[in-house]
Specification:
heterotrimer; A alpha/beta (333); B mainly alpha (448); C mainly alpha (335); A: 333 residues; alpha/beta; Rossmann fold; six-stranded mixed beta sheet; four-stranded antiparallel beta sheet; C: 335 residues; MetI-like fold; two-stranded antiparallel ribbon
């Protein structure tokens, strides 16, 4: 789907963040050493991943370039892929061998009725699932071909590369806006100079579409912002550690329509920098923001599975499965 | 959807009976109705069509106070009647005297009169409401008044002693019971209190917070056992803490009674208090915050250090301060373990040392008025110390995370302004550098 | 185009895979440190409890069943028991709670429901502050102020309510104009009042905190139904805060049972069961310890520890009871 084909999103993007394009042009020249890799300044050396090459596994390469639309595919964008993922809470199985490739530069929307395991699936993608004491899982999650659950990898690394935005905005109440954004650096123990911090704060807030609104109140507590602003602050916080994938668990369900639009526009901008996976209950939202869609369903007493997945437009226009048809047309669930 | 419900909804929604029943029959509203009942023909723009008139003049807020003149009159009337009746009772009927007894009788009568007065023109629910309100107000009044009496009484009696400056800087080594209040003071006890509580806190704060973190962050059957034992130990009477240290440290290990022994007794007393309240506070930190921190790739200890502890900071502070206030004010652990002395002893490990509450306790048992005055003075100083601690707690951690005091707001605003200025400066520099570079590039291009 | 999944058909068995937590060294150290803290606190607490139990058991062994029934305290001659002091302790605590509960409940309700917004914060501060006033201050107040003021009240109660056994004062003849009111001094009633003043702010502080958490939606729901303020409090705030009421009261009771100094200062210790609470002379376990530890022999110390152990057991029961009730109540998770 062509991003500019969504007039509302483009409009909002323009209204909300007219500075974003100028920001890029201004900061671009400050790092002119490597013009071929514009994302380089976003990935400082201390965050560079040296342990594994950023090369997608050819066997699970992303869909052909046509699916990526007009966006140029950049080497820095990552692909995340789930292979035969099952999940349990205690003895209760909630996901049954789910496989899904979320290609780089795409927004992948996970849709489906409540309790079908989409959120569990999302939490498995950055190892938040195992925080629940009774939780277990099977299968693999490959980030650019490397299994994030392999025993050679630290759980913190997986989570640092795969950021997450939660349903309810949850800025750290004891921190200012500025400190909220760089919380990830502090929390991952990164030593950063003040200039680098400033740069990260500005870039992250610009990327999250919040910079203009908060640039004069950076030291005020993050809890004082409106709900939509808080959620964008949380997005900025996730972006500050330059994740390769950003997971969003119903990021707009607690927000009003205006804030939702702003966040959707932000996502449209963001997918140039990071692969996005979003869980949403809102069918229109899935249609507006995503290029790829996966429909989850759990029938009575059985674990959740993906019924159908693929291009978002096709999913909504002519779904193959009758259950998908019912769901996307609001007849069910 | 079944056909039945499809049919039934429009039928009930549009039935003329329903519409007739709900629409007032005046013509003014009827002309806005369409042929189909329940539908308006058009909407109206406020101020355009004159349907809603704006009154001239400023709009005045209406009073919605629930306090009526009658209520006040009833209260006053009942009060006057009660006082008058009590006066009659006390002077004519009952062999009674004393202000407290008078107040008690008057209050009971007042309640009765008030209820009767309301019952003249109110139903049962209102009577209950008003009477309960009066009872609650008076309970609060009595408790607060009693507490104020406690404080004012102590300070007033103590002022006799502590208004002399020597009270603050001298000890009692040369001032006997019969010496006037211009001699001797409580410096030794104040220092003793501070030394004892400092040692107790040096042990119990790190240990207590660490244990609370363990309880809150590593839930396991073992943690549950620890929690249960700690909860049980909050019930340990303070005198028993003293008795334990007296029996072990002093009698079995053979050390002298000393400030350190008293610190140990205080530690045993306040450690469970601190652990328990800190545990509660830490568990109140929303799980979503911890998740958010972990989701950025934080390690567990960094999450605790940078997110959990700062978020719970005010609660932790309260826990510690409450423990401190308890530890400073308790006499009984010190009574058994510190020994009594009249001079300044700064060595916590040998020789007796006295604390303010212990000094108060010892002095007021003396029959000499000067000693009693000194005891009250020590109690007043102790109270001031506790008040200061509380004010400190309010100042340092009184507000929850993210809730700023006005001073903190001003600082945050100032810091924000500094940051904004810095960012603007950087942007200007970047822009200048970019222009500069652009100029260089164009010059280079021009050169060949 | 989209694709439909058939049910996955992978040959390998679908079993949970082991997931290593992959802890960093910092986390490993943190884990060990935190566990160390927990173990240390547990060790200290268990040590104290065990020591008391072992030493106390010696004395209880010697005295046998009479430990609970004997009123005297002469451990060296073998005649000792806690009947009198235990009764005194319970009587003082009971009086304290009877007085403190209504006051605390009223104060907490007033602060959370009635007080004007402007003074509410100040009142909260005052009550919390009162909860921290050292007990010796309450002792002073009871000794030098309350005792004198309460005499006529005690006298009045015994004169007019003397027909209720516990208010009777046999030595006092109200018809005798020369009867001295000194029989009313240093009574369990006085000690109970002093302790009540001490524990009421503690209880009120806890109750107030729980009341404030009563959900706004339910309050407004009740008021929207036309309930009076009292009706709303009774149907929403109190049922919600019942855990806090019980918890606060029990916590106050625990403090009342264990209070030493305030009681020690106002009572005149006797070693008989004094069922007439207005009559001079009573005793409590903690003041017994404060009174006797100084010149105690090793065995006497054991006896004192046994008494302390009994007090500890009672307080613990009260605390655990409170804990269970609070946990079962709706507001429990919060407090």
């Amino acid at each position: 789907m062509n991003p500019t084909a969504n007039p509302v999103a483009a409009d909002i993007a323009f209204e909300a963040e007219p500075a974003s394009s100028t920001e890029v042009t201004i900061t671009g020249p400050t790092k002119p050493t490597d013009p071929t890799d514009p994302t380089e300044p976003m990935r400082p050396a201390w965050l560079a991943v040296t342990s594994e090459p950023r090369r997608p596994d050819p066997a699970y390469a992303p869909a052909p370039a046509a699916a990526a639309g007009p966006l140029p595919t950049r080497p820095a964008l990552s692909q995340i892929e789930a292979r035969h993922v099952s999940a349990w809470f205690g003895a209760h199985k909630v996901l049954e061998r789910v496989s899904l490739t979320m290609p780089p530069g795409h927004v992948t929307a996970l849709i489906g009725p409540s309790g079908c395991g989409k959120s569990t699936f999302l939490r498995i993608l950055n190892r938040m699932h195992e925080l629940v004491p009774s939780a277990a899982l099977a299968g693999e999650v490959l980030l650019d071909g490397a299994d994030i659950y392999s025993s050679a990898r630290k759980v913190q690394d997986a989570r640092r590369h795969i950021g997450m935005v939660f349903q309810k905005p949850n800025p750290f109440p004891a921190m200012s806006i500025y400190n909220n954004v760089i919380a990830g650096l502090k929390l991952t123990g990164a030593k950063t100079s003040r200039d680098a911090k400033d740069e990260i704060v500005r870039r992250s807030l610009v990327s999250a579409g919040l910079w203009k609104e908060v640039k004069d109140r950076l030291r005020e507590p993050g809890g004082g912002l409106s709900g939509g602003q808080q959620q964008r602050l949380c997005i900025a916080r996730s972006l500050a550690v330059t994740p390769r994938v950003l997971l969003m668990d119903e990021p707009c369900s607690a927000l009003d329509p205006t804030s939702t639009r702003v966040i959707e526009a932000t996502m449209e901008q963001l997918r140039r920098e990071v692969t996005i996976v979003i869980v949403t209950h809102n069918m229109q939202q899935a249609q507006r923001v995503s290029q790829q869609c996966a429909f989850f369903l759990a029938t009575q007493g059985k674990p959740g599975v993906i019924v159908e997945y693929g291009d978002t437009d096709a999913m909504f226009a002519e779904p193959q499965d009758s259950r998908t048809f019912d769901y996307v047309n609001g007849r069910f669930g | 959807m079944t056909p039945r419900t499809v049919d039934s909804i429009p039928t009930t929604g549009l039935s003329p009976v329903d519409a007739d029943g709900s629409v007032p029959a005046d013509g003014e509203r009827r002309h806005r109705r369409a042929v189909l009942p329940g539908r308006f023909t058009r909407t109206h723009v406020v101020g355009d069509d004159g349907l809603i008139e704006t009154p001239g003049g400023p709009d005045v807020p209406r009073t919605v106070s629930r306090l009526h003149r009658e209520d006040v009159l009833r209260l006053v009337g009942a009060m006057v009647a009660a006082v008058a009746t009590t006066a009659v009772l006390f002077t004519q009927v009952l062999p009674l005297n004393g202000a407290l007894a008078f107040a008690l009788v008057a209050y009971v009568l007042f309640l009765g009169f008030y209820t009767v007065l309301i019952s003249f023109d109110a139903d049962r629910v209102t009577i209950m409401d008003r009477t309960a309100g009066v009872v609650i107000h008076s309970a609060a009044g009595v408790l607060l008044a009693a507490l104020i009496v406690v404080i004012v009484f102590t300070v007033a009696r103590g002022a006799v002693a502590f208004r002399h400056s020597n009270f603050w800087v001298e000890d009692l080594s040369f001032a006997g019971p019969l010496d006037p209040l211009t001699m001797g003071g409580m410096a030794h006890a104040a220092l003793g209190t501070l030394i004892m509580i400092a040692f107790a806190l040096a042990i119990s704060i790190p240990l207590g917070v660490l244990c609370a973190v363990f309880l809150a962050e590593f839930p396991s059957p073992f943690a549950r056992i620890v929690r249960t034992v700690v909860e049980a130990m909050t019930a340990l009477p303070s005198i028993v803490c003293g008795l334990f240290i007296y029996a072990t440290y002093v009698l079995i290990f053979g050390f002298d009674k000393s400030a350190f022994a008293a610190s140990l007794a205080i530690t045993i007393m306040i450690l469970p208090i601190i652990v328990r309240s800190a545990d509660v506070v830490l568990r109140l930190v929303p799980a979503t915050l911890k998740e958010a921190a972990l989701a950025t790739g934080a390690s567990h200890w960094r999450t605790v250090w940078h997110v959990v502890l700062p978020t719970a900071r005010s609660g932790l502070m309260t826990a510690v301060i409450l423990g401190t206030a308890r530890g400073i004010g308790e006499t009984s652990p010190v009574l058994l373990t510190a020994g009594y002395t009249t001079f300044v002893n700064l060595n916590p490990f040998s020789g007796p040392m006295v604390s303010l509450p212990f000094a108060t306790f010892t002095l007021v048992k003396s029959p000499e008025p000067t000693q009693i005055a000194r005891g009250f003075g020590a109690a007043a100083v102790l109270m001031v110390l506790v008040f200061v601690l509380f004010a400190l707690a309010r100042l340092l951690g009184g507000t929850g995370g993210g809730v700023l005091s006005s001073g903190a707001w001003a600082r945050a605003k100032a810091a924000s302004a500094r940051d904004a200025a810095r960012f603007r400066r950087k942007r200007r520099l970047a822009r200048a550098a970019a222009l500069n570079r652009g100029a260089q590039v164009s010059r280079r291009e021009q050169r060949p | 185009m989209t694709e439909s999944h058939g049910l996955a058909s992978v040959a390998s068995a679908d079993t949970p895979r082991p997931v290593s937590p992959g802890r960093s060294r910092g986390d490993q150290a943190f884990r060990i440190g935190a566990h160390g803290g927990g173990v240390t606190v547990l060790a200290i607490m268990t040590l104290v409890g065990l020591f008391l139990a072992i030493r106390g058991a010696e004395a209880i062994d010697t005295a046998g069943g009479s430990f609970l029934t004997t009123q005297d305290w002469e451990p060296n001659s073998g005649r000792f028991g806690i009947a009198a002091v235990l009764f005194g302790t319970l009587a003082i605590a009971a009086i304290a709670i009877c007085v403190a509960l209504p006051l605390a409940l009223g104060t907490a309700t007033y602060i959370s429901e009635y007080a004007p917004e402007a003074i509410r914060r100040a009142l909260i501060g005052i009550v919390d502050l009162m909860a921290a006033i050292p007990s010796v201050v309450y002792g002073l107040w009871g000794m030098f102020w309350l005792e004198g003021s309460i005499l006529p009240v005690a006298q009045w109660i015994s004169t007019y309510f003397g027909w209720i056994p516990i208010f009777a004062v046999p030595d006092f003849d109200p018809t005798d104009p020369l009867a001295t009111p000194t029989v009313f001094t240093a009574s369990a009633f006085l000690a109970g009042l002093v302790v009540a003043m001490m524990v009421a702010p503690i209880a009120a502080s806890i109750m107030r905190e729980v009341f404030a958490q009563a959900p706004e939606g339910e309050r407004e729901g009740a008021l929207a139904l036309g309930a009076s303020r009292w009706g709303m409090i009774r149907s929403v705030v109190y049922p919600f805060g019942v855990g806090g009421i019980v918890g606060g009261t029990m916590l106050g009771l625990g403090r009342a049972l264990g209070e030493t100094i305030a009681v020690y200062l106002v009572i005149s210790p006797v070693f008989v069961i004094q069922p007439h609470i207005l009559h001079s002379g009573t005793n409590s376990i903690s003041s017994l310890i404060a009174l006797k530890y100084g010149e105690a022999s090793a065995f006497e110390l054991s006896a004192l520890m046994a008494a302390g152990l009994v007090l500890f057991a009672i307080t613990m029961l009260v605390n655990f009871g409170a804990g269970i009730i609070i946990q079962r109540s709706r507001s429990g998770s919060a407090s």
